[in-house]
Amino acid sequence: MRKIFFLTLLLLAPLGLAVSAENLYEQLNADLESGPWQARLVGGIASPTGGSQPADMTIKALPEAKIIRIDFAKPDALADNYVVITPEKVYNYLFLTNQVVVYPREKARIEGLGFDLSRMGDLQDLGERGEVVWREPEAVTYENRPAWRVVGEAADPDLAGFARVEVWLAREPVRLLRTAFYSPDGEPLSDLRWLDFAHVSLKKSDLLDFPPDAEWIEKK
Question: Which residues span the domain enclosing 65?
Answer without folding.
Answer: 19-218
